[in-house]
Each structure stands twice: as structure tokens, then as C-alpha cells.
Design brief:
By secondary structure, the protein is mainly alpha-helical. It has one domain. 72% of the residues lie in helices and 6% in strands. It is built from three helices and two strands; from the N terminus they run ααββα. A two-stranded antiparallel sheet has the order 1-2. The protein is elongated.
């Protein structure tokens, strides 16, 4: 089995879990469902890394949490770096 394909697929699945979690966070009632709790359990450790350093932006009476946007941007580069590293490792092994 191709390790590159497996790693790439796992990274892509996690990316879509991050997107789903962001979209579902706009509807708080949905986050209380079993699917919402699962997404929170799986994605919050990653998002939490960014929430510690990026405070919400105040807008009048509310605030917008921009940390998920930064987290997705960072994830893109992490995914790219991991894919390149796995490709180089596989070419080294072969």
C-alpha cells in the first residue's frame, strides 16, 4: 500500500473535519449533538493551540474568533510539509 496516499488521505480527512467543525460552530445547537461533540473532541486540541495566542476580535457587543482561520492557513502549510517529507522519505527508502 502506498504510504504517501494513506498519509495524504488522513490529512485531507482531518482538514474536512476542521471545516465541518468551523461551519457547525455557527449553529451552537448543532454542536450539542453527538456529531458536534465528536467534532469538538477531534478538532479542539488543534484549534486550542491557536486560541491561546489569538484573542477574539471585538466588534461592538460581540466578538469574532479568527483563530480557526489562522489554524486552517497553518494546517495548509503543515499538510504540504508532511506530504513533501513523506515523499522524500519514500524516495529515500525505495
Amino acid at each position: 500500500m502506498n504510504i504517501q496516499l494513506i498519509v495524504g488521505t488522513l490529512l485531507q480527512v482531518y482538514y474536512w473535519l476542521l471545516i465541518a467543525s468551523i461551519l457547525m460552530s455557527w449553529a451552537p445547537d448543532v454542536m450539542r449533538t453527538p456529531v458536534g461533540r465528536f467534532l469538538t473532541r477531534v478538532t479542539e486540541p488543534y484549534f486550542g493551540l491557536f486560541r491561546r495566542f489569538i484573542p477574539p476580535v471585538r466588534l461592538g457587543m460581540g466578538a469574532i474568533d479568527l483563530s480557526p482561520v489562522v489554524a486552517l492557513f497553518a494546517y495548509y502549510f503543515i499538510q504540504l510539509a508532511v506530504n513533501v517529507a513523506v515523499a522524500k522519505l519514500m524516495s529515500f527508502i525505495s
